[in-house]
Amino acid sequence: MPASQIISLLREYHQAVVGSSKAAQRRSELSPGSSRARVTTANAQWGRAAEGRDIAADRLFDGLQASQYHCPDCGSQDLTCGTRKLSDKRNVWWISCSVCHTEGSDAASISAALREYNSGSTS
Q: H/E element holding 63?
């Protein structure tokens, strides 16, 4: 699978994670006296967003396994990736090997995380 498709899958996953997080936030902000309809709607929206996030994660995982990307230490193509939010609200991306657990360094963009990991810049 070409790098452009992997990057597209990473962006899709990132958007799904953000959407799921926003839906969870809206759900948690409901007041204790909210109507049953409002609670049910918020739960359904969060459920759909979480399912979309999980589907995007599966597609990304499959794409990474079918790609030319591999672990620089053990050669495995069983890679996982993710994003985490820093204290200053910035997202950073990382890729790690599911076999030997080598993790790439944090990167500011999806493409940078892939480049750094595949070039062997790991921690």
A: helix 36-65
Reading the chain (123 residues) residue by residue, the pLDDT tens digits are 566 777 888 889 989 999 999 999 999 999 999 999 999 999 999 999 999 998 888 888 777 766 677 888 888 878 887 777 788 877 788 888 889 988 888 888 767 787 788 776 555
The answer to whether the beta carbons of residues 15 and 8 sit under 8 Å apart is: no
Tell me 105's DSSP state.
P
Q: What is the dihedral of CA 66, 69, 71, 72, to 10 degrees?
A: 150
The residues, ordered by sequence, that sit 6+ positions from 88 with a Cβ below 8 Å of its Cβ are none
Residue matched to tokens 């070039």: 119
The span from the CA of 66 to the CA of 91, in Å, is 26
Beta-bridge mates of residue 82:
94
Domain ranges of the chain: 3-65, 79-119
